[in-house]
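If your schedule permits, I should be very grateful for your opinion on a structural question. Kindly check, if you would, that the fold set down in the tokens agrees with what the sequence suggests. Thank you for your consideration; the sequence and its tokens are set out here:
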Amino acid sequence: MRPAALAGRCTRVIEGALQWGRTRCSAHSGRGIPRPCPVTTHRLHTRSIERACGWETAVVRRRGGGTLRRDVWVRSVAGAADGRGGLQGDGRASVVLRVDGMKCGGCVAAVERRLMGVPGVHTAEVNLLTGTAVVHLDASAVSTSDLESNGVPSPQVQRLQKALSEGGFSAREPPAGHADGPAQGPAEAQSTLAQQAAREAAEASRRALVAFPLAVAATALHLAHAGLLPAALATGLHCAGPWFAAALGATAVFGPGRQLLIDGIKKLRALEPNMNSLVMCGAVSSLVAGVAQLLHPALGLPACYASEPAMLLGFVLAGRAAEARARAACMTDVGAVASLLPADARLCVGDRTLSVRAAGLKPGDVVVVRAGEAFPADGVVVMGKCWAQEGAFTGEPTAVRREEGDSVMAGVTNRDGMVRVRVTKPPAQSLAAGILREVERAQARRAPLQSIADKIAGRFCVGVMATSLATLLFWSTAGATLFPQVVAGNPPALLAARLAVGVLVVACPCSMGLATPTAVLVATSLAARRGVLIRGGDVLERLAKVDTVMLDKTGTITHGELRVEDVEPVECAAMFERSELRVLSLAAAVEQASTHPAAKAIVQHAREREVHVPEVTNAVTVAGEGAYGTVEGQQVYVGSLRWVRKQAGYGIGVPKQTTSDQVEVAVAVEGLGLVGVIRARDTVRTEAGATVEALQGMGMRTCMLSGDRKHPVNACAKVVGIHADDAFWGVSPLGKAGLLRAMAAEEDHVAMVGDGLNDAPAMLAADVGVAVQGGLDATRQVAGVVLMGDRINSLPLAFSLARSTVRTIKQNLAWSLAYNVVALPAAAGVLLPVCGAALEPAIGAGCMALSSIAVVGNSLRLRWTHRERRGTTARARRYI
């Protein structure tokens, strides 16, 4: 999403309004970049745009340094992206479906084709690993009557389910608690998914265990036929004869391989062949050939040929079992996030306490939370005190004191004390539940690299079946004539059949289908556990390309609120107690009722230092100047230095000079004059310097952006280690967006880190938007990454994990493609004329299984290796 001129028609209108020979307007970025010219000329032409198009323009000027050319003015066109000028907005609804029956990348492509064929579907994103499909619906295709109370268009869901069932797949909506329903909570929904993955892994293991002895027996038959077993054992196996081999093959196909057979047939009937279709074609063709040999011995096939399906399915099912266990391990990461939310709660009903399902809590309910338990829903403490461990959401390592009137979040652990909490939101609408939903949607969003793999896998099975048929025809006819030495001593039909079966079973679209989703699932789950919400594989891929990080100053590098850093008592009459605490107590007394940021900072500082604050009477606030009141019989003035001196006299003390980035609050007593000065500043976060150093150590250019004045911005940049040329000051929200577009024009990949809606335009203009603290609520629609805590020290982790993940995805795809490129020709007999070697079907099945296991295992390696890749400096390691 970019606030840009999104159509070529818009760019032509803009260029026509400028009437400039060398104006370039990008329909992708919304930039119109004319040649440098005087300011008045630029104003003339931007007014032309506004009159002709009805769009707003913003101007940003970048002086010197960096990657931008000197004295270049960049005009950003805002408004063409929000529906004005004839362009329609997004206006789409979305629904998440659980899809059963997907086995490989070919299934992913088939599901997408089925979903896209339903009227009203705009896009569909399918994830093989999690078994989910996120379907984006056009709002124009969903009538108001289609919407239920939870906003899900049920008739449309039924149409989607019908389309998938026709293709041999089954689909259902997530558990009720997954959205907003009370039947099942978010934690239970995710736990159900993890349990389902564990059950599937257990079932796959059972099928593999049943297939194992059949595969051993089939292997023994082959060894006996080849004369590689002791004579006594070989004689016994020969006596068993071809009927025993046929029994082994049939048992394997209709026993542990029954599910593969049924699914493969369904997909073939729907003209959507998948991996199971290939495996079962190979197994059934071998079994049919073996039975044909029993009925017609003149065919000349080996007596043990009918046992080939047992060996084949033994390898395949062993690989499926290992793959299922790896998937279950991936789902464990998501389950760890879900485990933060308790399943049960203690509900107060009169004088009794009842144990109820947490998912059924409603606003207004009062629950009891004891030490060691987690809060079941967002709420407010109404009785008691406790220490809440909020690190999973805020990144704060120490527990925070919570007492009456304080808010608490679902999933936070009560470390000490017992409290009563009044529920303010249902558990399904809590921050923790929102994180779980965002993590799941992120895992369903497909990375661009995966699109390439899915396009290949979508037609892969059809191509493999065609290759198998071509192999059968070639080696049974022309191949026997062209290469007689290859088929010498063997019937051509037997060789052709074995090679055709080998082609079917050695092909592996599964590894291509799993290459991206396994890595994305591990990375997004791991990031969520560390307080970083990454909204999909596409975001990970863009995040990995970032080479410039633009940090907002206020609220991101700084705390975003004034904090007292200096209390200076000045020399005055002898009867006044000259001390910091006395000055602070007088100021806090007068400022208690004020809403000014400086007043709040003074009162908070007095509370932190446990200063006694006396009572104040006759308190009066003077807008723009300060406040005064009577404290312990003395008239006290608190405000600007000029104003308090005017009210109470100069006195004899002279305060020290205040720096340009400090806010100065003077304190004076009538009759004594000035008695002290309190200085406050929007202080820099303690972790900001180490975070910037870590980013620079990763080879990134770090910049700072602010609407503040020059001196405070440069002072802050100096503290955290950002070069003065990379500190931009006095920039408006639209100006921020224009600046980022200008940097993008210089081929920089920029991430914008901000904390509020005023940063939203810049986040939209950046390659990746990163929201800090309240980003999940305030900027979730524009931020691709959300740092869940009130700290930015997890920012290097997000970039390093993204780079590691993309590197892993590329390794997986490279391995998958290389395997298939090498294995398929070898199985088809390309090497037979050269070295007389070809892949046996059973060995090919083992290679196919190992290919999928290698991809999943490489993705799981992220859980153990990302720490070594996350930073380059010792200081960075302390904060990641």
Summary: Residues 1-90, 144-153, 176-183, 868-880 have pLDDT under 50 and may be disordered. The first helix runs from residue 8 to 18.
